[in-house]
Amino acid sequence: MDDKRVEKTAESKKAKKAEKEPGKLAAIRKYFRACWGEVKKIVWPTPKATFKNMGIVLAVVIVAGLFIFALDRGLFALLQLVMDVSVS
Asked: How far is 20 from 25, CA to CA, in rounded Å?
């Protein structure tokens, strides 16, 4: 009699566990619902804000490019000066 009780409780635990665990398809469905909920929360910038930010980015890129170009030319000139002095 004790064995039957143990078997029944083990079977009922397995059944409850199977009911609690969602299937793979249900888990995938839940994931995509959560993703869609997050996508709905996105606040997109206005076109005016987008163009303003684009202008700022372009200005920073141009300034950084000019700085790197000037640094490269300066170091090249310095190296050229050192190389000319060492050859003579």
From this structure: 14
35-82 residue pLDDT tens:
999 999 999 999 999 999 999 999 999 999 999 999 999 999 999 998
Alpha-carbon distance of 26 to 40, in angstroms, equals 21
Using the structure block, give the residue that is written with the tokens 């804000």. Answer: 49
Query: From CA 20, how far away is CA 78, in angstroms rounded?
Result: 73
Q: Indicate left, alpha or beta for 70 from its phi (over 0: left) and psi (-120 to 50: alpha).
A: alpha
The tokens for 43 are 């606040």
Per-residue pLDDT band for 7 (boundaries 50, 70, 90) equals low
